[in-house]
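Give me the fold.
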Amino acid sequence: MLLNSLYWCRCFVNGFRKKADAHIERQQQNKLHPYDWRVTYREISGNTLEPDITQCALKKPVHDFDVDGLLPGICRMDFLFSHLMGNGFERTNTLGDGDDYCNCRYHIEGSCERSPEAGFEYRK
């Protein structure tokens, strides 16, 4: 299972890397859909990258449908998915909690310190 999870994590992170520059270029040209993500990112190593999300693709529609209370719970799923996929994930800010941006840090190989058993209430 770990090998399969590592494969999917690599696909996700490397897919992000391949598409990030073109996405940022469209963003700078104001050619994104109003519900799309706005991001910047830093390449830390072959194992680690840090995207900062300044506009969330989920926050606007959640607000438009007047269900803003769902967003913090949706944000917490990043920890669950990372834990289940066996990769590392860290974050201290989320747009869903009223912060100015989401500061994500993904590690292809690593672990997510916040397993489901630790609960989700006090996470970001």
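The mean pLDDT is 84.
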